[in-house]
Structure formats: C-alpha cells, structure tokens
Amino acid sequence: SREVCPEPSIIELAPGLTIGGEQLVVMAGPCSVEGEEQLIETARAVKAAGATVLRGGAFKPRTSPYAFQGLEEEGLRLLDLARQETGLPIVTEVVNPRDVELVARYADILQVGARNVQNFPLLKLLGQQDKPVLLKRGMATTIKEFLMSAEYILSEGNRRVILCERGIRTFETATRNTLDISAVPVLKEQTHLPVVIDPSHSTGHASLVPSMCYAAVAAGCDGLLVEVHNSPETASCDGPQSLRPSDFAIVMEKLRQFAAAA
Ligand code: PEP
Ligand code: MN
C-alpha cells in the first residue's frame, strides 16, 4: 500500500521499457494468436502506430468450452517470432498453474485474466517468477479484493505487479462490462503499483474504445491494453471489440497530441 511504499513503483517490463513513471505504455494486439500472418501483420501495425508491448493470447479462458481455446504452445512460438520481427516485448495470459513455467519461457509479462483473479495457487506461483505480472481485476472483484490478490504475488517475492481494470459486471447491458474509470484514482491513492486500463473487454465495442482510451489517460492511468486485429470481421475471438490497425493509429496520434498539449 501507499503507507508502506509512498513512492510509485516504476517497473521494468523489458530492457529499456518501464511502466509507472512519466511515460504511457500502450500494449496492443489481437485477443488471440490465430496464425503467423494474422499475428505478424497486426504486430507490425501496432508497432508502427507506437505501441511498445504486443499482446496476444495463446491460452484462452473462454466462457464456452466449445469456443476456440487458443493455439497454446504453437501460439507462444508465434509470439516469439513476432517479438523477433518487431522487437516488441510480449504480454500473454497463463490460465493454468501447470503452464506457468512454459509461458514464462516465452513471455516478457505474464497476464492473469479476470477469471483467475482469485486463483490463489496461480498467484502464489507467479509470485515466485522473475517476470512482471499484469493482474486483471475480476468482473465482480472489489478494489480491496483486487489488492489482496496483488498481495498474493507480492508476498511471494515478485515486486513487479501491474494492476489492470477491465470492466466490472453491473446491470448495464449496452456495454459488455462497465469500465470503472474511478478505479484509476482509487488504486493510485491506495497503492504504489502501476495501473492499466483495458478499454476493449470493458466496453465490448470497437466504436467505444477510443473515447475510453482518452478517458483512462485523463484519469491518470500508466498504460492501456487494447485489442487490435488486422481483420476484426474474421477474428476467432473478440472481433467486435477489436480496433482495425488504421483506427488504432488514429487513437495513438490523438494520445500523442494530448501529451504534447499537457
Ligand atoms: C484478455 O485480455 O485476453 C482477456 C481474456 O481478458 P479478461 O481476462 O479481462 O476477460
Ligand atoms: Mn479478448
């Protein structure tokens, strides 16, 4: 908490890249890794637009067991290829404790999905890794519970935890979830950890993503996690909320203009 650690934590994500300081870190890429062409094309586009981390799921925690579950290790290999092609570090989810070692071999940042926010054995294991962890808030997790989940990782010795607000479940159905934008200043008041906003899973609609990116930055977040797909129409997962590369480039340009004007 802020009481124990009054200064904000500046966390190294990869050599030469930190989060929690002055710079906004934009993590972008497809929901899932689907194949080489899809991933490399999208990775090149997000890099050209100014993203500094590539996202992409190889292990997908889907609501339906019949939905696409991810390419698993083949997906990790493709992420490694995309990293070699673009130089972008990789953030990818680990769903099952038995895969932590495998995913940690490929990933630069280990992601915990909303559904696993209270998977305590997974969190403890991630607390023993030498990689930063992006911890997503669950869809029905209070701030206090969210911070206790972060504590499970920190207390095992891993100090590199990044908090991610990705929308919570409310009565509203116009959006996929309700983005709790106030979580940014609340978390900033209560903790020293960097805070990232996911405008994609919180809204569920690509048309709403740009305005939530700007709102998140205005609220003081340290980073964004944005789904971008080279062909949202044919995406095997979360196409409707994925930005086209050209729309993502417009968002990035506006963010640069805001930063220059600030
Ligand atoms: C994701 O970011 O790939 C994801 C599955 O999101 P969430 O865990 O927030 O639903
Ligand atoms: Mn997704």
Automatic annotation (TrEMBL):
* A GO term for molecular function: aldehyde-lyase activity
Which GO biological process annotations does it have?
aromatic amino acid family biosynthetic process
What domain of life?
Bacteria
Q: Which residues form the DAHP synthetase I/KDSA domain?
A: 18-255
Keyword annotations of the record: Transferase
Q: What is this protein called?
A: 3-deoxy-7-phosphoheptulonate synthase
Please give the organism: Syntrophotalea acetylenivorans
Q: Report where the shown chain sits in the full-length sequence: first residue, last residue, total length.
A: 74 to 335 of 339
